[in-house]
């Protein structure tokens, strides 16, 4: 690649500009009659042309060849990748949990290693999300992926990823996340067996949540999101382009790399974020607050306050509440929650929920602390306590998640999950 791939620009929702060759960015107009250095001008739109200015997502790319330089597409089979509620299975309203899935021994790149766990919504209607795992042990090489159905939020759990995009390179490790725009080509290289989670978002693009009475500071700060600087591949040779389109995969042979953007500017860019920079808000008096205060990114729906999807994290934090049951209470929610664990223990499930695992609690499915967590928290001598060496997250959606056939039959489902609440006795005493 030409230029330093580890340079970044900071800010979420900013208008960025970057060039790998001096003078490649036009001055004063987006599409001059002749672009400098013999480049082509191309617009990538992530929102409708008439979207409000504050939410309009678009970037101008100045590239060596336009992205139309791709041959005809043919179908590509990938039996574990699913899209929308139509590809889900009927499942009872039970709490569900999966043990960590092993990374396969047979060679698998990012596309081959995708496994869909749960789906909802409809990509064509631009609603809902899909939750995937990636189980990868080799790099993509001269193979690129373009998702025309939705943006992709990657949450690594094991292994560092090098993500080459049309706009530059992101290095993303466990504890960090990457947000890849809909329709933008990328490829992923790994340095060993790698596992993680993906939220494929068909709805409104993820954005920072409003802070309301929190004020102007707190949660995730825009300046901590990093976009890459321009970089382009200079090596000759063909590329395999794989496109996800209408829930199916299609492949075409391109004569040259799609990573040939020499300069770009705009508001639509791939981003990375380190969750260690999240400013956690919590109670400093009593009671356990709603998990919405841990929202990093939100994809709003047409109902204010009821998200198409929220991305929520549970990072290291202090607990100081007095006279309070500190773990999450028992609850039934309107929102459906799919949860993963990156590292450490989750305080409400200290034993059965392992890093790399998944849990699913759909709309109005009751859940909460297991017996051991309840007993410990009920009897603890309440002193300031640091929850450390832990990181969990949720994809929380207004739409019910439908587990896939793979998820129900992969052998990793925890058939004894509900047993974690055995022994919660009726301790009622009528005085």
What does this 3D model show about the protein?
This protein is mainly beta. It folds into 2 domains: 70-258 and 270-275, Jelly Rolls; 278-414, Jelly Rolls (Sandwich), CATH 2.60.120. The protein contains 2 helices and 28 strands. The protein has a 7-stranded antiparallel beta sheet. A 6-stranded antiparallel beta sheet has the order 6-25-24-27-22-21, with no helix packed on it. A hairpin with a 2-residue loop joins β17 (239-245) and β18 (248-254). The longest helix is centred in the C-terminal third of the chain and has 9 residues, at 371-379. The termini are far apart. The mean pLDDT is 95.
Descriptive key words:
single chain, Jelly Rolls, seven-stranded antiparallel beta sheet, six-stranded antiparallel beta sheet, 2 helices, 28 strands, 3% helix
């Amino acid at each position: 690649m030409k230029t330093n791939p580890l340079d970044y620009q900071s800010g979420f929702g900013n208008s960025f500009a970057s060039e790998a060759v001096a003078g490649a960015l036009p001055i004063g107009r987006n599409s001059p009659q002749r672009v400098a250095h013999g480049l082509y001008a191309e617009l990538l739109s992530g929102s409708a042309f008439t979207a409000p200015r504050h939410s309009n997502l678009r970037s101008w790319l100045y590239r060596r060849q336009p992205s139309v330089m791709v041959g005809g597409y043919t179908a590509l089979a990938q039996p574990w990748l699913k899209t929308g509620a139509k590809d889900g299975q009927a499942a009872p309203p039970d709490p569900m949990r999966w043990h960590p899935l092993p990374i396969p021994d047979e060679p698998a790149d990012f596309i081959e290693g995708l496994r869909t766990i749960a789906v909802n919504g409809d990509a064509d209607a631009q609603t809902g999300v899909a939750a995937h795992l990636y189980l990868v042990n080799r790099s993509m090489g001269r193979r690129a992926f373009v998702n025309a159905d939705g943006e992709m939020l990657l949450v690594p759990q094991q292994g560092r990823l090098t993500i080459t995009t049309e706009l530059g390179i992101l290095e993303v490790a466990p504890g960090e996340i990457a947000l890849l725009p809909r329709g933008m080509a990328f490829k992923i290289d790994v340095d060993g067996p790698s596992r993680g989670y993906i939220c494929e978002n068909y709805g409104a693009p993820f954005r920072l949540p409003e802070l309301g009475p929190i004020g102007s500071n707190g949660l995730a700060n825009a300046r901590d999101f990093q976009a890459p600087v321009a970089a382009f591949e200079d090596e000759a040779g063909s590329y395999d382009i794989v496109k996800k389109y209408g829930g199916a995969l299609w492949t075409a042979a391109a004569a040259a790399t799609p990573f040939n953007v020499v300069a770009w500017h705009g508001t639509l860019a791939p981003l990375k974020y380190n969750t260690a920079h999240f400013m956690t808000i919590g109670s400093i008096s009593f009671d356990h607050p709603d998990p919405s205060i841990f929202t990093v990114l939100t994809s709003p729906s047409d109902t204010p306050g009821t998200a198409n999807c929220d991305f929520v994290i549970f990072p290291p934090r202090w607990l100081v509440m007095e006279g309070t049951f500190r773990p999450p209470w028992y609850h039934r929610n309107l929102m459906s929650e799919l949860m993963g664990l990156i590292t450490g223990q989750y305080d409400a499930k200290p034993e059965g929920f392992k890093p790399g695992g998944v849990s699913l609690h759909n709309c109005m499915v009751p859940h909460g602390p297991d017996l051991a967590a309840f007993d410990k928290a009920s009897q603890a001598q309440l002193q300031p306590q640091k929850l450390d060496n832990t990181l969990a997250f949720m994809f929380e959606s207004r739409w019910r998640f439908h587990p896939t056939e793979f998820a129900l039959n992969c052998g990793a489902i925890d058939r004894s999950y509900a047993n974690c609440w055995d022994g919660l006795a009726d301790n009622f005493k009528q005085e």
